[in-house]
Design a protein that fits this description.
With about 475 residues, the chain is mainly alpha-helical. It contains 21 helices and no strands. The protein has one domain: Hydantoin permease, CATH 1.10.4160.10. About 70% of the residues lie in helices and about 0% in strands. It is globular and about 70 Å long. It starts with a helix and ends in a 14-residue tail after the last helix.
């Protein structure tokens, strides 16, 4: 009872400090009180599965087939990329469970209090807005196709994208509780409609749509390694852009076990069912079209299929893009500490909606994902290897909020981390070939190189030695300084 009263007082203090409206999540960069950490594995499973059963993951399965892969090869590339990336993802997600802090605040312990703002937080803010726009444009293309099928009219893609984006922004600014509730409602609806789409494809009169024909579809290149590695890399790189946000989704979780079970099971199941739908639809049309929503709309004859597809796209985008804006808002909060989570999420929403009016975010998908992978693969390498091997998954939480604390490094910057992030970026851009799976190769190259360099630097530099060492002191959950 006493803890609840203290927590309520804390939230009121945050509301007053940041001038945020009532009824929204007040916590931004602040650590979540232990009494509020009640989320079980199935809620996290629902959130992550909702995120992975999305137009981008589905489309990627179809794009792999269109690029020449067989159905099995495209599905394997999608699943392997997500699962490999998820193994690194859950290491950083543990920060949220253990300390109740967002992932961006945790990066202060690795990049330094100032370095974290200028590198991972800035880049993640951009990535969040891009992913929001990308999902919105994909959803808008499906909505336009469905509305055209139902009404026979024509609809401007740009204005549908913008309007759809505005509708999605509402839940994100409210906060985590609305996200959890929406995920619980959306998931069963999505599963039912998803199953319906599979049945519709498998029972189409065209013999190429039969399961046996799809499974036997060889693709133009079959299991060609370079093409397979390209799409595995796209899958892994897309997931790795979220690694700095891993803690955001589970900082309300009860235990590490809840996080591990919920996250990894959702990653495996979500990647499989989403990739399978996209690859199945593309293989059924012999790789001539990659967008399964266009294919499904084209083969339907009544109003039921387009209507269900419209519902699916609407709730799917809503659940996914809430996460994009939510994490984007937390990234901006880490940069500008005096602005509350509600307002920073609103800023991310505005930027994402504006970007959704640019159709090129869909047309140049592979280029954008590769570019984001250039940045986030080395960042992931530094974060995972530092937190797992050097700090042994132990942080001094109060020092994350003090420039004069143990994570001061050199005037707030971990120069070793900055240098290896730059080297990893150059490695990804100019050295590693596609056949090596650049996202994974860069993560390992950067992580190992950073760890060795950090240990050498720690032997000669007191700031590096103090900052890189694990902390065994009891966990403390402070409010950031005014």
């Amino acid at each position: 009872m006493a803890e609840a009263i203290i927590d309520t007082a804390f939230e009121r203090t945050l509301q007053k400090r940041y001038r945020q409206p009532e009824g929204v999540e007040q916590f931004g960069i602040e650590a979540i009180p232990a009494a509020k950490k009640t989320v079980k594995w199935y809620d996290l499973f629902s959130i992550i599965l909702n995120f992975l059963v999305n137009p981008a993951t589905i489309l990627r399965g179809g794009l792999g087939v269109a690029a020449g892969l067989s159905f099995q090869a495209s599905l394997a590339a999608e699943c392997c990329g997500i699962i490999i990336a998820a193994c690194f993802y859950v290491v950083i997600a543990t920060v949220g469970v253990d300390y109740g802090i967002p992932g961006q605040v945790a990066t202060r312990g690795i990049y330094g209090l100032r370095g974290s703002k200028l590198i991972p937080s800035f880049l993640r803010s951009i990535a969040s807005c891009y992913w929001f726009a990308f999902q919105t444009v994909i959803g808008a293309t499906a909505i336009v196709a469905v509305l055209t099928k139902l009404t026979g009219g024509s609809y401007p893609l740009i204005w549908v994208s913008v309007g759809f984006g505005l509708l999605q922004a509402f839940v994100a600014v409210v906060g985590y509780e609305s996200l959890k509730t929406l995920s619980r409602i959306a998931l069963p609806l999505k599963v039912v409609i998803f199953a319906y789409m599979f049945v519709l494809l498998a029972n189409h009169s065209d013999p190429n749509f039969a399961p046996s024909a799809v499974l036997a579809f060889p693709g133009k290149a079959g299991w060609n390694w370079v093409i397979f590695a390209t799409w595995l890399n796209a899958s892994a790189a897309g997931w790795l852009t979220m690694i700095t946000d891993a803690a955001d989704f589970c900082r309300y979780s009860r235990t590490r076990a809840d996080m591990w079970v919920g996250t990894l099971s959702a990653a495996a199941i979500g990647a499989f069912v989403s990739g399978a739908l996209g690859a199945y639809a593309a293989a059924a049309v012999l790789g001539k079209t990659a967008n399964p929503f266009v294919i499904i709309t084209g083969i339907s004859t009544g109003w039921l299929t387009p209507a269900l597809l419209l519902v699916f796209v609407a709730i799917d985008n809503w659940t996914i893009n809430v996460l994009n804006l939510y994490t984007g808002g937390l990234s901006i909060s880490n940069i500008f500490e005096r602005i509350g989570r509600f307002w920073t999420t609103l800023i991310a929403s505005i930027a994402g909606v504006v970007l959704s009016a640019v159709p090129d975010v869909l047309n140049s998908y592979l280029n954008y994902v590769s570019m984001l992978g250039n940045f986030f693969s080395p960042i992931a390498g530094v974060l995972v290897f530092d937190y797992l091997l050097l700090k042994r998954m132990q942080l001094d939480v109060p020092s994350l909020f003090r420039l004069d604390g143990r994570y001061r490094y050199w005037r707030g910057f971990n120069l070793v981390a900055v240098a290896w992030t730059a080297l990893g970026f150059l490695f990804y851009m100019f050295v590693v070939p596609t056949s090596w799976i650049p996202a994974l190769a860069t993560l390992l190259f950067t992580g190992i190189g950073y760890s060795v360099t950090a240990l050498v630097a720690a032997a000669r530099s007191q700031p590096m030695a103090i900052a890189s060492a694990p902390v065994a002191a009891p966990i403390s959950l402070p409010m950031p300084a005014e």
